[in-house]
Amino acid sequence: MKDIFSYLEERKQEFERHFNVARMLENRVDEALMDSGIYVEVRHINTVKSGLLVHLYNIVEAVCTRTLIHVGQTVAAERPGLWTDVVLAEWVRSKFWSSEERLGDKALERLTSLSSQLVSGEKTEAFTIKGAPGSWHDEAIKKVAKRLGCQLKIPQKIRRAAYETKYRNEKTALAYLAKRRNDLAHGSSTFEEGAQDLTLDDVEDLADRVIPYLKAVTESYQMYLENKGFLKTEEAA
After folding, report:
1. Contact yes or no for 210/60 (Cβ under 8 A)
2. Domain assignment of residue 211, given as a range
3. Predicted confidence band at 103 (pLDDT cuts at 50, 70, 90)?
4. Is the pTM for the entire model greater than 0.85?
5. How many domains does the chain have?
6. 121: left (phi over 0), alpha (psi -120 to 50) or beta
7. Residue 12 to residues 7, 40, 76, 175, 211, Cα–Cα distance (Å)
8. Between the N and C ends of the chain, which has fewer C-beta atoms within 10 Å?
């Protein structure tokens, strides 16, 4: 997990650099740049703010994806016979439903092949835990952790900030961020419109709710793996 924490810190610093550039540009609104006759306008700041939202969401998605890949690699280092039932179900989910086969004879052959791997008692190759359908937000993160039997231990202050429904349509910070990013990515909103109702202080507050939560979730998975929470109780002891 060390690499994931390092990655998160690097992306956090990258986001902060880009945010500082946005702040600098905001302070230059209506000023000409280097006597070029080009002016920084409010619409330019709005475009930059939308870019910051996409950047922040990409951090969430990348860290969650990398974490689940690492979980699959760690689990695969142990024999399937030692896994908990919920983790075994996740392995089947990753192997069976990642194929292009429809239900029928081909699906039965696939399932039989998977069963043979388990019966052999040998270790399996690394696999990627499937995320929740749709975008990454706090409910999706909690759902995947619950599927794996990973208890999310989020400090109260961080949990309160992340789960507070203070955004539009009673959304949490991560749900709001995911919705804004999707609107931008799918063309439902332009980059000039995507964050025009947010100040840079609002964007900073959003990041201050999202990134600490993301780190706390990653720490929970680290504890889950160190304590071998993916193994049956008698094997993890």
Report:
1. yes
2. 2-79+128-236
3. very low
4. yes
5. 1
6. left
7. 8, 26, 30, 19, 8
8. C
Instruction: Locate 100 and state its tokens.
Output: 């292009």
Tell me the per-residue pLDDT of 16-71, one tens digit each, with 9 for 90 and over: 999 999 999 888 876 655 556 677 788 889 999 999 999 999 999 999 999 999 99
Indicate whether 108 pLDDT > 70: no
Neighbour-count burial of 37, counting CB atoms closer than 10 A to its CB (0-12 exposed, 13-18 middle, 19+ buried): exposed
**Entry field: residues in the chain:** 237
Buried b (16+ CB within 10 A) or exposed e, 169-181: eebbbbbbbbbbb
Question: CB within 8 A of 130, min separation 6: which ones?
Answer: 68, 90, 93, 94, 97, 98, 144
Is 226 part of any domain? Answer: yes
Domain annotation covers residue 101: no
Rounded CA-CA distance 204/158 in Å is: 15
What is residue 83's three-state secondary structure?
strand
> Is 37 inside a domain boundary?
yes
Q: Is residue 85, in this structure, part of any structural domain at all?
A: no
Residues whose CB is less than 8 angstroms from the CB of residue 71 and which lie 6 or more positions away in sequence, other chains included: 129, 148, 221, 224, 225, 230
Average pLDDT, the chain: 88
Distance of alpha carbon 17 from alpha carbon 15, whole angstroms: 5
